[in-house]
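Attaching the record inline, Q. Sequence:
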Amino acid sequence: MARKLPRKDVVIVGLGWTGSILAYELAKQGLDVVAIERGPWRDTATDFPPGYAQDELRYGVRLDLFLRPQQETLTVRNNMTQTALPIRRFSGFLPGNGVGGAGVHWNGQTWRFLPSDFNLRSHLEERYGADKIPADMTIQDWPVTYDELEPYYDRFEKLAGISGKAGNLNGVKQAGGNPFEGWRSSEYPTPPLKQNYGSALFAEAATKLGYKPFPRPSGNISEAYTNPLGVTMGQCTYCGFCERFGCGNYAKASPQVCVLPALMRLPNFSVQTESEVTRVNLDSTGKRATGVTYVDTSGEEWEQPADIVLVCAFSLFNVRLMLLSGIGKPYDPVTGKGVVGRNYAYQTTSGVSMILKDKALNSFIATGSGGMMIDEFNGDNFDHKDLGFFGGGYMGSGQTGARPITTMPVPKGTPKWGAQWKKAAAETYNSGYGISTHGSSYSYRDCYLDLDPTYKDHLGRPLMRMTFDFKDNEIKMSQFLTDRLAEIAKALDPVEMTASPRKGPWNSTIYQTTHNTGGTVMGADPETSVVNRYCQSWDVSNVFVPGGASVFPQNHGYNPTGTVGALAYWTADAIKNRYLKNPGPLV
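Structure, as predicted:
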């Protein structure tokens, strides 16, 4: 029997970006809040001091900050005819582990989705005709609009001190910014990062071809900044250790830097680390949550009663927890009925690698989210009429740090080891150059998440099963984007270049991105969504699922964190201003 703890007003599953934002907002409202986090406590000063934060072997190769399969894993397959097998080592995507979640190890790219992304199906049907959308493509409109989320994008960017240059201030285009972005109510909190040589070369080549390059919005901030919570961030030092690393300079936006110093001062907030929530508990009606049950490191089971349950873990694990808790009808791809696990999507990336002649790029002087981008081929910014696909993505140059173990470019034909490899590596290390695309991944009837019928975890619970593959639409889209990128690469007159469009099948052993989306999608219809427009469960009204990107109906051509942060503030306001005054369904 689980030992029962004193009741709380709010229990939060996971203390990453969304968990920490909602904890602060609701605790400041006077509610008694507890967060339960599976991983360990992580603090900037003690966990990421500059003396060893840049340990590539520990963090970049051995993945010290990431989830271990023995903690939780899942089974994967490409289609329904295959038998799914467990992931034994996370490679294709890398879920974070511990306080701060993916907000600790991310690169810092902080985008807003395009206005047309939020009414995607309606927009495509109106422009191209409903019959042009593939029959098995299950994309749907979001239940919120860009205009509604804009103030919340703004709040998250100010919380995180995001560096960038506006391209559209209140409908007025701004020189130097992204001309395709939706309107912004204010300029970025901090100016753009300084560009390294490779990014400057890309911008010059793109401009000659008629494109409009702009600096990528970045959570690696360009100057010291104090956010609205009174927390001060430092200036990026361009050390090149962002992705897979914590930042010891307080210069990369993360919950540790931006929220936790203020949150941990609140006497009505507490956190229980190294404890895994096993289920959301329901009353006898199944219509109201009574709290959660979790297991600590000793294996002891605890019940945490609460009036409101917020599911704020990584997107994949939000879906599994909802399935294990029996909240919402599981999705069945055969009938197309059910909702939990529906519309799983990913991201479709590609790139062009090259070696430049007589160029010393100094790629080790880098940031996770620096660089110059173009957006001419994102979303529906370009005419898809005769292309045979929908979707798109941004493309550009962003040197994230030529770390010596994992980044060692050599010319084609170079041996894999030995004296010739060493000579080539020394000669080309400083002239190897890569540019990339970051494309959308739309949802399909047979790409979904469910509980595996065979494999179980150490607690005897079914693992989650992922069924996913790249579809023809995304493969064609990736080829098109990569071809456009290669045209820019050729303008740089490289000694050699290799274009690598995304091909199928999807391979879980090759890293591509950790942007897993969908499974608890938000919508206006409970027949096609798990949560309503306020991330509130249609079935259990005191359960909200604002965590991660599991509420995305499909994934668009940008990194998800900016939208995840905006939705956290959107949900917090709905709870504070509406739910607490009249608990129950908000729509």
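The mean pLDDT is 96. The chain is about 20% helix and 20% strand.

More tomorrow.
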